[in-house]
Amino acid sequence: MLTEKLAPEKLDPRVRRTRSLLEQAFFDLVQEKGFQDVTVQDITERAGVNRATFYAHFPDKYALLDHNIRQGFLKEIDKRMLNACHLTLDNLRNLIIAVCEFTRSANGHCKPAQGQFESLVETQVKAVLHELMLKWLEQVPLSVPAETAATAASWAIYGLALQWSHAKQPRPVEAYAAEVLPLIASNLNLSSTGV
Questions:
Q1: DSSP string spanning 28-78?
Q2: Potential cystine with 124: which of 70, 87, 101, 159 (Cβ 3.0-4.6 Å)?
């Protein structure tokens, strides 16, 4: 099963509903106005809740954005059942594809001038990747500490996914993942036949 950090939040249904209202209002407003122009007041008015309720859930709009990005990426990992897997070449390839697709989609929701949004996506995706890689690496003999290997792999996967997502006409994601897989696998001491 998932580690505590990787597990999606388990909340009271009322809290979930309120968060869902806030998240949807926030998402809609970012699409309409852009992140920089959205205020907490805008979010609460759209969600139909008061400011105190917002602040009971999130300290500011940046925390709400971090939460949305993290939860969105965790859902992508869950959907692909990568959280229940162990480290294999196939799972690593599927993870690369998931990161590429999520990064392209997430960064596509922001206006081009909002580079700050991209750095927030990077922070959350790399954090989840690191947690997942640590979980996977617990079962693999390594010549370096698992923490170091997880950091290197998560940064490399994210960097390669970002490069792919910035291409004007990217190659099919499956072909790109097959191309970069040996780079990541060799750093984790995975052979072409598996772990």
A1: HHHHHH-GGG--HHHHHHHHT--HHHHHHH-SSHHHHHHHHHHHHHHHHHH
A2: 70
For residue 1, is it within any domain? Answer: no
Q: Could you read off the pLDDT of 105-136 as tens digits, one per residue? A: 887 655 543 566 788 889 999 999 999 999 99
What is the percentage of the chain residues whose pLDDT exceeds 70?
87
Residue 195 belongs to some domain of the structure:
no
Q: Are 37 and 45 in contact (CB under 8 A)?
A: no
- Which DSSP symbol is given to 8? P
Cα-Cα-Cα-Cα torsion 174, 122, 165, 113, nearest 10 degrees, comes to: 170
* Residue 192 lies inside a defined structural domain of this protein: no
What is the CATH classification number for the domain harbouring 104?
1.10.357.10
**Alpha carbon distance, N-terminus to C-terminus of the chain:** 20
pLDDT in tens, 8-37: 456 688 888 999 999 999 989 988 988 889
In terms of pTM, does the model score above 0.70? yes
Answer whether residue 8 is part of any domain. no
Task: Please answer whether residues 101 and 159 qualify as being in contact, where contact means their C-beta atoms are separated by less than 8 angstroms.
Answer: no
Tally of structural domains, the chain: 1
